[in-house]
């Protein structure tokens, strides 16, 4: 019964999202809100199949990273123990970038201005930039 009551609401939300312009959708999906595991997941879904995700750009020399847009500082994604991570992991962020942790100490979110991207040849790339830089170079292209 509960599912049936929610279905019209869900369908209305889906129709609203589908009616958005591509730029508006990109802004909502990719950049909305503080950096969190949920936002990273939405970004991975949005960039699936492109060079905007680690699994598709790793062999081209891109390393998952984060940048603080306010300071320009960028760091390689790391596990909590300091080892480089093959994907975007919040637990290794600099302490001053972290805004919330759960009861186990895992990072829940980072402050505004911290963005996920990649480092390649000493340069930080946003997901959009990595997607553009790898276009035509991925194995399926």
Explain this structure.
It is built from five helices and six strands, in the order ααααββββββα. With 141 residues, the chain is α+β, with helices and mostly antiparallel strands. It has two domains: 32 residues, no CATH class; 101 residues, no CATH class. The strands form two sheets. A four-stranded antiparallel sheet has the order 2-1-5-6. A two-stranded antiparallel sheet has the order 3-4. A hairpin with a 5-residue loop joins strand 3 and strand 4. The radius of gyration is 17 Å and the shape is globular.
Quick take:
The chain has helices at 2-19, 22-31, 37-46, 54-57, 127-134; strands spanning 63-68, 74-76, 98-101, 107-110, 114-120, 123-126. The chain is of the alpha+beta class. The strands form two sheets. The protein has a four-stranded antiparallel β-sheet. Strands 3-4 form a two-stranded antiparallel sheet.
Please tag this protein with its features:
two-stranded antiparallel ribbon; 4-stranded antiparallel sheet; 141 residues; alpha+beta; 35% helix; 2 domains; 6 strands; disordered N terminus
